[in-house]
Amino acid sequence: MSEPVTVVLVDDQPLIRGGFRALLDAEDDIEVVGEASNGQEGVELIRRHRPVVALVDVQMPVVNGVEATRQIASDPELVDVHVVILTNYGTDEYVFEALRAGANGFLVKDIEPADLLQAVRSAARGNALLSPAITRKLIGEFVSRPPSVRTAAGLEELTNREREVVALVGRGLSNEEIAAQMVISPLTAKTHVSRAMTKLAVRDRAQLVVFAYECGLVTASGPDASR
């Protein structure tokens, strides 16, 4: 039997932590190894336990979820921790800042129990948890224009094919969906995504989505791979 997916819960609402813990601990392949009520305690717990997944509330006392995420993502010893931001609202400005800081995705707190379990397992595999509809609205609201020098320079590093792939990732498509749309194999799609991530020095697919919006490859109204 494989090792369970270890989880740390960081939220200042005891009812949220208790409800999530009861649900997660009932599963044979998931284990909650710690709880914290603010970001500072959360980062300390995560450094101690090094969980596979950290569910982190975006707004908390002492240290908020954005700063907690930044500290986790910048720690080389925590590179394997997948941070998922929890929010009451799908269009919270702080969520986008958390994605910029290194979060793997976000979930709304009223998520269905089955969807939460699926999300934790998916995050453990390194997948980005980004609802395409909510992400378009969220990033469309909070990405500033024009593109920054960093994103503009990064865009120049990509081939036209890689730009197209990044735009599709920004729309929330999986490698299989990208392959179908571009009429290529899933392995080729995965290779294009990996090369783009390497060139842009981003740590995961969520960061690739942020880049796609920041540089204008995708806008709130749809993709624009011609830029």
Notes on the protein architecture:
- The chain is an alpha/beta fold.
- The chain folds into 2 domains: 5-129, Response regulator (Rossmann fold, 3-Layer(aba) Sandwich), CATH 3.40.50; 147-215, Arc Repressor Mutant, subunit A.
- It contains 11 helices and 7 strands.
- A 5-stranded parallel beta sheet has the order 2-1-3-4-5, with helices on both faces. Strands 6-7 form a two-stranded antiparallel ribbon.
- Helix 4 (93-101) links the parallel strand 4 (82-87) and strand 5 (105-108).
- The protein is globular.
- The termini are far apart.
- 41% of the residues are buried.
- GO terms for molecular function: DNA binding.
- Residues 6-124 form the Response regulatory domain.
Describe, in short, the structure shown.
The protein is built from eleven helices and seven strands.
Key terms:
single chain, 227 residues, alpha/beta, Rossmann fold, Arc Repressor Mutant, subunit A, five-stranded parallel β-sheet, two-stranded antiparallel sheet, 11 helices, 7 strands, 52% helix, disordered C terminus
Spatial order of strands in the largest sheet: 2-1-3-4-5
**What proportion of the residues form beta strands (DSSP E)?**
5-15%
Q: Can you give the mean pLDDT?
A: 85
**CATH topology annotation of the largest domain:** Rossmann fold
Structural class: alpha/beta
For the record, give the distance between the C-alpha atoms at the N and C termini, rounded to a whole number: 49 Å
**Architecture of the largest domain in CATH?**
3-Layer(aba) Sandwich
Shape by Cα distribution: globular
Give the radius of gyration: 17 Å
Give me the count of strands: 7
Low-confidence blocks of residues: 222-227
One letter per element, helices H and strands E, the order comes to: EHEHEHEHEHHHHHHHEE
- As a percent range, the share of helical residues equals 40-55%
Overall tally of structural domains: 2
Largest sheet: 5 strands, parallel
Number of helices: 11
Q: How would you name the CATH homologous superfamily of the largest domain?
A: Response regulator
CATH first level of the largest domain: Alpha Beta
